[in-house]
Model the fold of this input.
Amino acid sequence: MKKIVFWVCVLALNACGGGGGEKPDAEPVAPPGYTVSITSEEGGSVDTSGGEYQNGTLLEVAATPDDGFMFTQWSDGSRENPRALTVNADVSLRARFLSAIDLNLRVHVMQDDPWIHGSGNAMPPWVSGDDISETLMPEVNDIWQLAGIRWSIENIIQEPINTYDGYQDDIQYIVDSQRDEEGRSDPERLPRLYNLMQSDNLSSDEELDHNLFHIYIFPFIGNTSQGNAMSSFGWHSVVGSWSNKHNDGGIPEKTLLIEAQQNFVRGSLARTIAHELGHVLNLRHDCEQCLMYAQGYDITDIQIQTAREEGARRSYQESVSIEILSLGDSYTIGESVCDTCSFPEQLKSSLAAEHTEQDEITLDVIARTGWTTTNLKNAIVSEDLSNDYDLVTLLIGVNNQFQGKLFSVYETEFIELVTSAISFVGGDKSKLIIVSIPDYAYTPFGQNRNPQNISAEIDAYNSFAENYAVDNELSYAYITDITREGLEDPSLVASDGLHPSELAYSRFVERLTPIALEKIK
Done:
């Protein structure tokens, strides 16, 4: 019995903490640490490489593309940039970049009285220019970011419906159109939609094969249809701002401009535009839950490659070298004006302003003050000129008149010079511009040398050249009348009192540029 009592006392002492001294506090436990690794692929950089962080740390990371590249996504699929991370596990992220492909989009917002659906619902145009630039296009670009494709608005045109006999019947046909028994949209809608577009705003086949894309936003394009990439009509694609697609052709309602990608239910107007542009970039309905399907926003790797190849082809314009040859005398070299003030130099600058930055325009001049047709002929013989110039100008004859040469010499040698000039453009006479002779009678110098006789003889020279040009279907640019303003407007005469000024030459070029652009396009 005593033994039993002893053990009870021992247990009681232990339970009550008997035996003296308090138990020390437990050592604090540090929160776990995690490793964060942030890297980038070629084409850009990240603002941090990561490191060791405690659990719960908030970290912001940003990816910056190099010039000519676009950030597309992080390796975990997120496109948020910059993005906030809450560190609660080891993280390894890589920023992905693609070389940027910039494509130009022209948006036509078709204007008309409200279209009346069979339900009696009126469908007026409602999309504004601000809707397009501030809401639609950012969403379209967000969708195409994954492919490294960026769309820029080239123009937004508020375009009236083209009116013609029967256009209202065409509109009603479009509004009433239905899918066939196999679920296909009525193809007859498309030519009618195309007819409603203003012809002046359509692009040529050549333009449509380069960096220009068209989207036409109509109020409605038919029951159970929201968009069509119109391949048979130069890819002038259409979308409807009132949609029946989500409700099987029921009463139409406004299509949402955008819709949360993570909660996709039906096509937003932005997604529909992005989808139709995918068709123009050679994509087809070949995937599920993706941009090119009835639902979804994803773009597959194969689709990205296909779209980028077509986008690069459309956006790339091969560098063009345009070579100009100018033949003549002092009027061609620009006697008494600056080196870049002559009409050939100003024409070169004017053409350069009309062409892309990568185009190279070069100018060769065979001319000298005092040259007659004979002098120019002999100089050409001594030059090793090629036959692949893109444009030749010829202005010659004033010194034949000034030196009193026989007019018959001019008649013969002018034709020979024209023949030589045409040979320098590979025999293509359409690339030659004959320029009329200025009239120096309307200068201080000419006023002291029988100005009436000078003008009459200059007219004879010019008439021969013009008649020859007309008879042989050659381009002839008449600029003589500009120089005949020299007495009324002294700014048209150079400081030597004889030759045209820089201003006069600039007026020559105003007439020459449209002709030249037709020849080198």
Summary: Residues 218 and 240 are 5 Å apart (CA to CA). The two ends are 122 Å apart (CA to CA). Confidence is low (pLDDT under 50) at residues 1-20.
